[in-house]
Structures are given as C-alpha cells and as structure tokens.
Design a protein that fits this description.
Length: 345
C-alpha cells in the first residue's frame, strides 16, 4: 500500500485511446495532451526501435530496406505486442515529461471484438510499459461517455464510432452495451478504396498518405455544396514514371460509396436487433457519430436519410474515446461498473 501511494503521488493517471491509426492520451486534470500516429519504426533485423509516433509516420514509404515503419495494430487488433509495448512506454513517458519513476493508473480503450487472450496480452504490455493498474474499457462505451450521452440511464443511446481500422456500432443502456457490431471497414478501408479507384480508372498508383489527404480534402458521403477538385501525384502504372492528375469530389464520393454503404448497412442491422423499448428511445435521441471517420462530410445526412433517425456528429469526434475513458478516471465507481458489465479483467 505504501508503494502504491508513493507511485500515485509521483504520477498522473491517464487514459489511452490505442487506435489503429492514431493514439490519444488523456491525462487526469489536463485533458487530451497527446495525439500521435500509432506507428513504430524499427530496424528490420535487430528490431531496435528507432522512432515512434509522428517521427515514425514521416518515415512510412520512405525508409531504406533495413528500416521498417509499421503499425502495431491492424483492424483494431494488436499484431505486434513487442512494438505495442514500446509504443505505450514512449507515450506514457512522454506525457510525464520523460520521467522514468512513474506508475500511473491507466484506462485503455479496446475494441469490442478483442479476445480474452488479447486483453491479457495488452494488460501485460501496459504493465511492462509502466502502468500501475490497467482498466480496459470498450471503445463504443468510452465514445458514448466522451460524446456526453447519458449512458447510466435506462434508455437507449446509439453510438457509431468510426476509427482507422474498425467501425463499431453500439446501443447502450444502464452502463452496459446491449447490442454491438464491429466491422473492419473504417478510415483505412476508405483510403484503400481511393487507392483502388485511382489505380483502376487512371492507372495511377498512390500511397496511403496521399489517399488520406484526398479523403480529408475531397471525401464525402452525400452531395452537398459545390464540387471541388485537387491535384494528385503518384506513379503511372503503364510507364512507371511520376505522373499527376486532377480529380473531383464527385469522383472521390463514388470511390467511397462501397465502404460507406457497408457502414450504413451495419447500422441498420444493429437497429433491427435492438429491443423495441430502446428503439423507441432512439426515435428522439437519434444516432451520434464519433471517431475520425465521423468527419467525412455528409455522413450524418446519409445515415439520417437511410434510417429516418436524427443523426449528429459529436463535438471533437476523434477525441471522444480518449475523453470518455479519461472521464472514468474521475468516476472510479462508474468505471468498475462498466468494466464488470463489458470486459472481463
């Protein structure tokens, strides 16, 4: 107990949204103070970590053969626990100003599709990275809390959390998840859809970073306002030489149609399986969109048109999971209740 109190005195409890594309860290009493890419650069043979976060992302697609810049998580699942541990250690140390003598209590948002073995491995990685206590909380629940939804009330709340690797659609009531579906279609798949479209229609090969830029600038799910266009540079698949073209927002919307339709279909499936009493609540409360993918222009209008329910994008949607997990640090009783109902610890 003495050492636990001592560690607590030297540390600030934190919440981590360990996302496929981006990791956010919330520090108790300070809010979200770190938001960096979930990327690790390492030596291919010795596996020595060379860079983490923003510095590592700048290396993606530009490294020599002996250096690999990779994401330790794919589709919401940890694929490299060693790299994940190093990434967690880097983020925990960074938010504590490089101090080594810290053992914070950590709330980690996890995908609802994570297995028990993966949960145990994640907790072990977080412990090795410096965490004193680890509380896993499912991302849809954290997103709902971060969006300000009344999750403890006996009424239906629907959240659609669109991250980098996964989209999770959940109906929440009484601090528990009543219905939830996770699909591996989200921001990354939208980027891939743009890459495929330019490859098939223009014989132009572009990288993931360029595709993400196109999505952010021109991407939409619903026609609204004037069409825009931009120049895209890549490699000509016929000649092998550098090439550039101009594409329009209409063309990008066409490219994104398939992943958007899959997300819409998943929302409808969850609604169909929701108990009638909770469905009645959703007529008034509607759907709340969170995650970086919620920023896709017109997605709220598309969902509202398809479901007949009012749909809105949460404030700072890409921070909702981190903020929700962070709020639980101030309400440990709520956190333990949520964890007992949703995640075996």
């Amino acid at each position: 107990m003495f050492f636990d109190s001592l560690f607590g005195a030297f540390s600030n409890d934190i919440a981590i949204d360990l996302g496929t594309a981006t990791t956010l860290v919330y520090v108790k009493g300070k809010g979200v103070i770190l938001m960096e890419p979930s990327v690790v650069a390492m030596h291919k043979y010795s596996r020595t970590i060379l860079a983490v976060g923003e510095e590592a992302k700048r290396m993606v697609g530009r490294t020599p053969g002996a250096i690999v810049a990779t994401r330790p998580l794919r589709d919401g699942v940890i694929t490299d626990f060693e790299a994940t541990e190093e990434m967690l250690r880097y983020f925990i140390t960074k938010v504590h100003n490089r101090k080594k003598f810290v053992r914070p209590r950590v709330v980690i948002a996890v995908t609802s599709g994570i297995t028990e073995a993966e949960k145990r491995a994640l907790k072990e990685s977080a412990s090795q990275a410096g965490a004193r206590e680890i509380y896993p909380i499912e991302e849809p629940m954290a997103a709902a809390i971060g969006a300000g939804l009344p999750v403890e009330e006996p009424g239906g709340n629907m959240v659609v959390d669109i991250g980098g690797g996964t989209t999770e659609v959940a109906v929440i009531s009484l601090a528990g998840i009543v219905k939830c579906k996770m699909i591996k279609v989200a921001g990354d798949e939208m980027d891939q859809a743009i890459i495929r479209h330019l490859k098939n229609h223009h014989n132009l090969l572009i990288g993931e970073r360029t595709a993400e830029e196109v999505k952010i600038k021109l991407g939409s799910a619903y026609l609204e306002g004037e069409e825009e266009e931009m120049e895209v540079k890549g490699r000509d698949l016929v000649t092998g030489l550098p090439k550039y073209i101009r594409i329009t927002s209409e063309e990008v919307r066409e490219a994104l149609q398939e992943p958007v339709e899959i997300i819409v279909r998943t929302v409808k499936e969850v609604l169909e399986e929701t108990p009638p009493e909770l469905s009645a609540d959703l007529v008034d409360r509607g759907i709340v969109l969170t995650g970086g993918g919620a920023k896709l222009r017109g997605l709220d209008k598309k969902l509202s048109e398809e479901t007949g329910l009012p749909t809105r994008v949460a404030e700072d949607p890409d921070k909702c999971v981190a903020v929700g997990a962070g709020k639980c640090l101030d309400e440990i009783k709520l956190l333990r209740k949520i964890v007992s109902l949703s995640v075996e610890v």
